[in-house]
Every structure is written in C-alpha cells, then in structure tokens.
Design goal:
This protein is an alpha+beta fold. The chain has eleven helices and seven strands. Strand 5 and strand 6 form a beta hairpin.
C-alpha cells in the first residue's frame, strides 16, 4: 500500500511539474515576442519541448522509480507512473498540448532482426514470417524489413526491390513510424497489394536503433504476444489481462511450446525506458515531437521532430 502511494505521488508531481513549466514558458513568450505567427509557434514548440525534457531530467520524485531498493518496487512504481501519465492534454495561451508517455519497450523492435548470431536471426525471421502468413501478408515483406535494417551491402545483394525503387532510402535501421510508412508504401506499390492493412503495426513494432532492446512483457500488447508465441487472440488476451504482475517466467504460466518460442526473443520484466510524445497544435499548425528517455541515465535519445 505504501509503495503504491509513493508511486501515485510520483505521477501527480510529474503532471504538476510539466503543466507549470510549460504554462510559465508560454506566458513569457506571449509577453515578450513580437515576431510573426509562424516564428512564434516554432519558438513555443521549442520551449515546450525543452520544458518537458527539463522536467524529466530534474524531477526528484521521478528518480524514485530507478532508486527503489528492489526490482519489484521499480516495476510497480513505473507501472503506476505510466498508468497516470499515459495521456495528458492541456491548453495555455491558445496552444493545445498533448503529452503521451508509455513504455519504450512494449513492442517488438524489428531492428533486432540483425546483428545477432545467425541462429537467432533465423529463428526470429521464421516466427515473424509465420505471423505474417497467418495474417494474410506475403512472405516477401520480410525481405523489405531485413533490407531496411541491414545497412549498405557492397555486393548489392539485397533480398527485395526496395532500394531499386528508392535508392536513397536510409538502410542502417528503421528509424521511425514515418520511415516505416515509406517502406510499407513502396511494398504496396510494387506488389499492388493491401495485405499490410490486415495487421496493426502500431501495436506490433516500436523503432529504436538499440539493436539489443528487449520486450518488456509487462506492457506487451495483444499483437506482440500473438507474434512471439504464435498463438491465437484468445490466448494472447489471457497474457495481456495479467500484465503488470509478471516478475519471472514462471508467472506467465506458459506451455513448453510457448516457452520455446519466447526464448527466441530478448524479453524482460522491467525496462526503464519511456517513449515520450508531444503534440503541439495552434490554429492550423501542428508539431509532433518524440524521444526515447532513459530513466536511469536521465538522458533522451532518438529524437524525432515533425512539422505538419
């Protein structure tokens, strides 16, 4: 009970800190700036982003998550913090801000399909391929994923037509949702298929350059369980329903076959990384900012900025 109260206090203090910091920053801009509208919006967006990052780095209560004495306490505090901070909308000085925070390790990172030993690669590719086929997606799409994450090949021996159609496309790793959308669009154009619409990739993939990233099983959504274990929705939903209570493999109550499948992936029960997304709207302008934040190192990385 005491542990839950501490974690709840962390959430409340974080929300208050974010709201106050951004409100003060916007008021200062409104009072001081005489620039044109677009420039003001860009300044406001920068201030909001800086304030969010500053609160993440300086909030003492947030430190309690990583400084808790046991992994169980860390896991519980993170779970309650994320539950309370998942979606925070507010408005100040005519600027609407939507702040979303979730685990940055809840889904499968397709960039982990490379830089492993060949046995691990083959196993993951086979499991992902089976998942695609079971959902009506052609196995050719695997070639697109592997090419997009494998870097430049001196011999030009790629598995797909991806770089024939788009030779300048970044190919070291899949960097973002937007990058992945480009890959999907090229696949649809080449094969004249709509099969990719059969899978909710937003609930399956998370993109980070960190090749050794693990899936935090306490946050994995239905599609991730279906893919990793090769199970139907009903069984996957059973595992989703018990999430937040997992501390060991035994807690999952897996069959022997499911254990073998899960062993092909790097998994965890506590990962101190959060996915922070800030959407800023004013009139007809829209900025989306995303970063991955390491709670232990107090460091943001993998920044993505989109002006729409």
């Amino acid at each position: 009970m005491q542990r839950n109260a501490i974690a709840l206090m962390i959430t409340l203090m974080f929300i208050i800190s974010i709201t106050v910091a951004i409100g003060v920053g916007l008021k200062q801009i409104k009072d001081a700036s005489n620039s044109i509208e677009d420039e003001i919006f860009m300044i406001e967006s920068s201030v909001i982003f800086d304030d969010v990052l500053r609160v993440l780095q300086t909030n003492k209560d947030l430190d309690l998550i990583t400084k808790a004495e046991t992994v169980e306490d860390k896991r519980d505090a993170l779970a309650i913090f994320l539950a309370g901070s998942a979606f925070i909308p507010f408005e100040s000085s005519g600027v609407k801000v939507i702040l979303e925070i979730k685990s940055a390790r809840d889904r499968f990172n397709p960039n982990t399909l490379v830089d492993l030993n060949q046995t691990q690669i083959d196993a993951r590719v086979e499991i992902l391929g089976n998942y695609f086929v079971n959902n009506g997606i052609e196995s050719d799409f695997l070639g697109f994923l592997l090419d997009a994450t494998s870097g430049i090949k001196d011999d030009g021996n790629y598995r797909s037509e991806l770089f024939i159609r788009e030779p300048t496309l970044f190919r070291d790793y899949i960097s973002s949702d937007k990058h992945f959308s480009k890959i999907k669009a090229l696949y649809r154009d080449i094969y004249h298929t709509s099969s990719l619409e059969k899978v909710d990739f937003d609930k399956l993939f998370y993109f980070t350059p960190q090749r050794d990233s693990a899936v935090d099983l306490n946050y994995a959504p239905l599609e991730v369980w279906k893919m990793m274990l090769g199970v139907e929705s009903e069984r996957a939903q059973q595992l989703v329903d018990a999430e937040g209570s997992y501390g060991s493999l035994e807690d999952l109550l897996l069959s022997d076959e499911e254990k073998l499948a899960l062993a092909k992936f790097k998994t965890s029960f506590y990962e101190p990384y959060i996915d922070v997304r800030v959407e800023i709207l004013k009139a007809n302008k829209n900025v989306k900012i995303q970063l991955e934040y390491d709670l232990t190192k107090k460091k943001g990385s993998h920044f993505i900025y989109e002006l729409q």
